[in-house]
Design brief:
heterodimer; A: TIM Barrel; Methyltransferase, Methionine Synthase (B12-binding Domains), Chain A, domain 1; 4 domains; eight-stranded parallel beta sheet; 31 helices; 25 strands; 46% helix; 14% strand; B: 225 residues; alpha+beta; 8 strands
């Protein structure tokens, strides 16, 4: 067990070296003797490790002092000072790298590579200056940690790296990473010692270290603050004294930490007390052994695959293979469908998302990088990078904010040589496919052998057992009746012989056969029973999802049958449509409008026409009557605006049906026209749009001039169209005066049109003094007023 | 000017319904609301920026690049004796507004209306995330933050919006202000947060109680309005 040191900044400040606007790390060059003295005070207190005074010495943070150009020089000096202070002792030097102070794109505005370069520069300087271990600390976002850790491992591969995140009271970093997600990512990336520092006192930080201990076997480090600070008389005061901090040391050890120190608010006195406590602390009983499941993470979520864990769904939809429309969108740079697919699949129950950008004729690595970047901002499901192109994998994995899964590698030695090092570098898990020079082996034994050879090669390349998963591959039952059972045999063999997590796609099995969804669903159930841990499937397909849920219950993965009951108990024995066919055709039409049933209104209109009802009667007694009724309800607060909108859309659907069904065409006499606009200077138009929608559905021709419309334009339009009605909308007190201006302009031009005004800040009184003919406090009132004015 | 854009992993459907004028206890097809929320998630481009300035509590002056006096008794009382203020701005961009316009033109009124509400929800979420981040970094230094206050709240005149936008350098995240003091893109928020020492008294309670629209607001959650 080792004692680290405590705060540097507080001591620098006490000794008068930290004046406002002065860079703390510059003291390494300006006052080396003071820095070395502080280091020695911690060594005397009993520290086994001291941290260089280089916390903010990366070039990005130094930019705040215009000292970026001296970044290398400062870190070199910091390491040299620490080294000098340690001379003649067994104390070791931790080369300290703190945050840049910025967030990496797209969460912030700084590119990943800029941060990587800054840390590479700092790591080089600290290593050259004699640091024994590189320390990356007080990091609040995974991307920054990844950039720093990748830089450290690339620049100084032989040097151990210690990584500390900073967590908040809710047990997450500010951007949502849990201790578990952090530990899994760090271990996969090759960190040597991991843990947490800063922000929290020991009481709150110790449980977080305990959570890390459950998912990793790596040595753990903890450096809490001396409690939560208070500002007293302009000074930041930390409440915990040396004795109180020392009292936590045994708990820190019990939680699994073997590297113990203090952060903000601690001093040599604190560390001396902690030294005493550490010397008499009893070493912890064995650390819990983490299970052997494969863990994949995003910034905020952790998903376990294999090792008896509940099977999880990998959403397959983000794949342009055979989807011409999607290919076109991706080629045109429109990623809306990709993002929509991501959200839909996550909502439907996918716990991971497969991402494939295999569109011919584009730079797939750029497309994949963009897809990964944008999808990881939208959903917290970890991603499966579906490509066998090393260039694509490199680009995507570099910026993925978590621990991803590569889909896939096969037994081709060239491919393995190209991809395995990428997987190791970025800590990715790898899916192994049994495809060799002779193609796909027909038998389970053959596939097992191929996977075993990939597995051995991967282990030699430094990947761990839990980094590797296997796919048994699925061939269509149409061409080979024994293929599906061979796949199931392969799954069982993977489990019994290799103990490896398994992943499998489904749809191949039914290729060329009818009834594909049902067949895929049956195969899914069989595969889950045979040991499939993660199916790659479409979570939007109800039949498949139901098979999944049923299998989970039957295989013992649904405690108390909760998920199953939740899904199936509400299925009615017989469907009960809301618009049960009772009542006359007109009654049914009115009800459909009332219910917003725009899908069924077409059929009801046809019924009414078949019953020889006059289209004008259908319109007035079926449609308009219903709209008026719902308008009244809305005015009385008995229903709400979205319901009014749905009724309006239903009206629209009805009109479309009427127009299509009548050989002579269907034309309602159009009332109005009604000129409507949001006044000059005002850019809000939702209310105006709603009024327009209702007017159109009440038989009005509406001339919508849009928003920010000048009085002159309104006057001109009114005169040209001879509109009898004008509607003006303004949302803010600052634009209300334009109502007055517009009305005055209309009057000045001699227009006889009636003016109705509306908008959140408008009132009856204001409308009156502005010269309006009426004030409408909601959209249905506007329609009523319009009808009154034209004598309906 | 630190940038923190936040993430939109989920847009709260209940909040969206509330902003659309739907009371939570009334049934409404969730699928329509979910679709609007998903559409906003896909089109949103969240951006956030903030800046720390001094504040003179006697003169009520915000000591930013172009210092100005903050008007309004409620905001002044809210900031109290704070000597540091953080001014912040967020937006979710203009792609959503364009899509809503298009939806109304193609007569998909309901989705348009719900997307507008979801967009408001999303903007508040991004503002909350930035606010949370700001709270975090100030707590470490021993400060307590007031809740965020925007021009137009209470009696803080909207006419000070342009000064705020300049103080925050909100143009760096694509926010501008019209001559009528409206933010563009529409789904944007600017706000001020006061920093008080932790041994100072409690801050004013947040929420609807202090707003001039209290009692008449359609978006109120309380059952009595």
């Amino acid at each position: 067990m080792f004692l680290l040191d405590g705060a540097m900044g507080t001591l620098l400040q006490k000794q008068g070296y930290l004046t406002p606007g002065h860079c703390p790390e510059l003291s390494n060059i300006e006052h080396p003797e003071a820095i070395q003295a502080i280091h020695r005070s911690y060594i005397e207190a009993g520290s086994d490790f001291i941290q260089t005074n280089s916390f903010g010495a990366n070039r990005i943070k130094l930019g705040e002092y215009d000292l970026s150009h001296r970044a290398g020089e400062i870190s070199l000096a910091a390491a040299a000072n620490a080294k000098a202070a340690c001379a003649g002792t067994a104390v070791k030097v931790l080369g300290d790298m703190g945050p840049t102070g910025k967030f990496i794109e797209p969460l912030g505005d700084i590119p990943f590579e800029d941060v990587y370069e800054a840390y590479a520069e700092q790591a080089r300087a600290l290593a050259d200056g004699g640091a024994d271990i590189l320390l990356i600390q007080t990091i609040i976002d995974v991307q920054e940690m990844r950039a720093a850790l990748l830089a450290a491992k690339t620049i100084a591969p032989a040097m151990p790296v210690m990584c500390e995140f900073t967590f908040n009271e809710d047990g997450r970093t500010i951007t949502g990473t849990t201790p578990e997600a952090a530990a899994i990512l760090l271990e996969a990336l090759g960190a040597d010692i991991i843990g947490a520092n800063c922000s929290l006192g020991p009481g709150k930080l110790i449980p977080l270290i305990q959570r890390m201990a459950a998912v990793t076997s790596l040595p753990l480090v903890i450096q809490p603050n001396a409690g939560l600070p208070k500002l007293i008389d302009g000074e930041t005061v930390f409440p915990l004294g040396p004795k109180e901090m020392a009292a936590y040391v045994q708990d820190m050890v019990d939680a699994g930490a073997t590297y113990i120190g203090g952060c903000c608010g601690t001093s040599p006195a604190h560390l001396a007390a902690m030294r005493q406590a550490l010397d008499t602390a009893t070493a912890t009983a064995k650390r819990p052994t983490p299970d052997k499941a494969t863990y994949v993470t995003s910034r905020t979520a952790v998903v376990a695959i294999g090792s008896g864990k509940t099977p999880v769904i990998i959403g397959e939809r983000i794949n342009p293979t055979g989807r011409k429309a999607l290919q076109k969108e991706i080629r045109n740079g429109n990623f809306v469908p990709v993002k929509t697919d991501a959200i839909r699949q996550a909502k439907a129950g996918a716990k991971l998302l497969d991402v494939n950008m295999g569109v011919p004729g584009i730079d797939q690595s750029i497309a994949m990088e963009r897809a990964v970047r944008e999808i990881s901002m939208l959903v917290d499901t970890p991603l499966v990078i579906d490509s066998t192109d090393p260039a694509v994998l490199e680009k995507a994995l570099r910026i993925y904010p978590g621990r991803a899964l590569i889909n896939s590698v096969n037994a081709d030695p060239e491919q393995l040589t190209a991809i395995l090092p990428i997987a190791k570098k970025y800590g990715a898990a790898v899916l192994c496919l049994p495809i060799g020079p002779g193609g796909i082996p027909k038998t389970a034994a053959g596939r097992l052998n191929l996977v075993r050879s990939i597995y051995d090669t991967a282990r030699k390349a430094g990947l761990r057992h839990e980094d590797l998963l296997a796919d048994p591959l699925v061939l269509t039952a149409a061409s080979d009746g024994s293929a599906p059972s061979e796949t199931l045999r392969t799954l069982r063999a993977y489990k019994s012989e290799l103990g490896i997590a398994t992943i499998m796609g489904l749809s191949n099995v039914s290729f060329g056969l009818p009834g594909r969804p049902g067949l895929n669903a049956a195969f899914l159930s069989m595969a889950l029973a045979a040991g499939l841990d993660a199916p790659i499937m479409n979570p939007l397909q109800t039949e498949l999802m139901d098979a999944y849920r049923r299998s989970l219950l039957l295989l013992g993965h649904d405690e108390g049958a909760r998920a199953y009951v939740n899904r199936f108990q509400d299925l009615p024995a017989t469907a009960q449509p809301q618009d049960a066919p009772t009542g006359t055709p007109l009654e049914q039409i009115r009800q459909a409008v009332r219910d917003g049933a725009k899908d069924s209104i077409g059929g009801l209109i046809h019924n009414a026409l078949d019953a020889h009802l006059d289209p004008l009667v259908i319109t007035s007694d079926g449609l308009t009557a219903a709209m008026t009724a719902i308008g009244d309800d809305y005015g009385q607060g008995r229903c709400y605006l979205p319901q009014v909108m749905m009724a309006a859309e239903t009206m629209q659907a009805a009109f479309v049906t009427l127009k299509e069904s009548l050989p002579s065409g269907f034309a309602m006499t159009e009332k109005g026209p009604f000129v409507i606009a949001t006044v000059k200077g005002d850019v809000h138009d939702l209310g105006k749009n709603i009024v327009t929608a209702l007017l159109e559905n009440n038989g009005y021709k509406v001339i919508d001039l849009g928003k920010d419309v000048s009085a002159d334009t309104i006057v001109q339009t009114v005169q040209e169209s001879k509109a009898p009605l004008v509607g003006l909308s303004a949302l803010m007190t600052t634009t209300m005066p334009q109502i007055d201006v517009t009305i005055a302009a209309l009057k000045h031009a001699g227009s006889p049109a009636k003016v109705i005004v509306g908008g959140a800040v408008l009132t009856e009184e204001y409308a009156h003094q502005a010269g309006a003919d009426a004030y409408a406090d909601d959209a249905t009132e506007a329609v009523r007023l319009a009808n009154t004015f034209i004598g309906e | 000017m630190p940038i923190f854009n936040g993430t939109l992993h989920e847009i709260d459907m209940n909040e969206t319904k509330r902003y659309a004028g739907l009371k939570a206890d009334r049934p409404f097809p969730d699928a329509v609301v979910a679709e609007a929320c998903a559409a906003v998630q896909v089109l949103a481009a969240p951006r956030g920026i903030f800046r720390q300035c001094g504040y003179d509590p006697q003169a009520h002056e915000l000591l930013c690049d172009e210092p100005f006096t903050i008007e309004g008794s409620q905001i002044r009382r809210h900031l109290g004796d704070a000597e540091i203020a953080i001014v912040m701005a967020v937006t979710i961009g203009s792609a959503i507004e364009d899509e809503i316009d298009r939806l109304f033109q193609t007569k998909e009124y309901t989705k348009g209306l719900l997307m507008d509400a979801a967009a408001t929800t999303a903007t508040e979420m991004i503002a909350d995330q930035l606010n949370h981040y700001i709270d975090n970094i100030t707590v470490k230094k021993g400060y307590k933050t007031t809740w965020r206050y925007s021009p137009g709240y209470g009696d803080w005149p909207l006419s000070q919006q342009p000064a705020m936008v300049r103080a925050i350098h909100a143009d760096q995240i694509g926010i501008t202000v019209t001559s009528s003091c409206m933010l563009v893109p529409r789904k944007s928020v600017t706000a001020i947060i006061g920093l008080k020492r932790t041994d100072a008294g409690p801050c004013e309670p947040s929420g609807c109680a202090g707003c001039t629209m209290h009692g008449t607001c359609a978006s109120s959650c309380t059952s009595d309005s």
